[in-house]
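yo

u said u wanted the structure for the complex thing, so here. seqs first:
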Amino acid sequence: MTEIIVVTSGKGGVGKTTTSASLACGLARRGKKVAVIDFDIGLRNLDLIMGCERRVVYDFVNVIQGECTLRQALIKDKRLDTLYVLAASQTRDKEALSSEGVRRVFDELTADGFDFIVADSPAGIEKGAHLAMYFADRAVVVVNPEVSSVRDSDRILGLLSSKTLRAEQNNGQVKEHLLLTRYSPKRVATGEMMSVGDVKEILGLDVVGVVPESADVLAASNAGIPVILNEDSDVSRAYEDAVARLLGETVPLRFVDEPKRGFFARMFGG
Amino acid sequence: MGALPVDCRSSASPKPILKMTGHLMNKPADASPREHAVEIRFGQAGLVQLRLHTTDPGSILDELTGRTATAPHFFERTAVCLDLSLLAKPPEVEEIRAVIEIVRRAGMLSVGFAQGGASVEALAIELDLPVFTHIRAPNKPLPVVQAAPAPEPALPALMQHQPVRSGQRVYARNRDLIVTATVAAGAEVMADGCVHIYGPLRGRVMAGVHGDTEARVFCQAFNAELVSIAGVFRVFETIPADLAGVPVQAWLAGEDLRLAKIGE
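structre next:
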């Protein structure tokens, strides 16, 4: 049984692609067969984050338009055996996607025995974002703890409950998860940033993960290594927890409180 | 219940365009100045009464589109009854045919005429439309009852158990609306009857959107962006401290929109 997870947000720059890459890696590291697909046609990024940009020959649009087979376009990850990347086209626009084509690719991946398809949605609510969510079984809504991101996420949640195949066929709801990124407990404590509680209350959903704000994310992106693979980072642990929760495990929330500074640190400003 | 007159003057007052009720009920209809092309009145059974001041298609269309643009879906395919009583002279069949077409272009559907004597009867026969005797022009003798429209059955309330998200809109036509979840900022919930919200209300709420001044809004945790009853509305840039987050009801007292904490 293949599960389609869309990673979406409405707003741009909140961490959809970082999240898609890390969740896909985390699932693959647990032995799941995973395909991660970049739906941001024309603004291809996932290949960079995954570090496979120089191995892209064929892309998602080529497959949809029948110019190559799916097998030719899937890029096997060098680090994890069961992880595959399907890159977006950089030279086309989102009109090149078709609902029929996306369905065909998903059907083929299902027939190939994939456990998870992670769809990395573009920002916005137009065609690319619509098709990324349309066939989804689950949605990870990435949200930053600030008002505009929260409102856009609310809009996306509304679309998930009305403009998806499951909603149209009355086939149960798309299972929705909230993932907070760029969370800074320190700024929450000073009242500059919305807290996990605030966001949960406004959106009425439980969080599947809280990823702390960290310089490790930028470093990992630039290096082409999904940040979850940087074992020294809190960000990696936070994504690992989110993967565990997606798979149904119960894991306590970490990185939501300001770290207590020890006596010496306080004395010497360490 | 008499028809509720609705003012469609747009320029005279600095009040926002959503404000629709300018007159009290039962005020003489001829209080409206003549410079208007038409007047929209909400009658019984969801029938909108359109009182023509002219048969000039251009000015009617201008006024109607101006009015419907403020709330397009309230008027979408709404049944309209034409009232010819204020026209200076009995109109020609072709003039009325043009008016019907213009009304249709504004999104509404003409379904008949208000009672208005022999000339209206003749027009109705010519155009194959009914005459509604319930809706009659003012200061005319009570007409003989001909064909009363069947009363609209009262529908059960529309239930909304899912959160109403930003950008979503829920409208309960001809009935009450009950929401058991959150109404988010940027969402809109509306009903021809009352609106009840048992989750936090952070968006816009409109009750009595077809002119029912008795409609009310009830909510569990008030944080609305806008509250409107029968077109009289109030925008909340800041929530009054005594109402924020507590159960609140809103109702119309004459032309005043009142809000109060429930249970006080």
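Chain B is about 15% helix and 30% strand. Chain B touches chain A at residues 162-168, 181-182, 184-187, 199, 202 (CB under 8 Å).
cya
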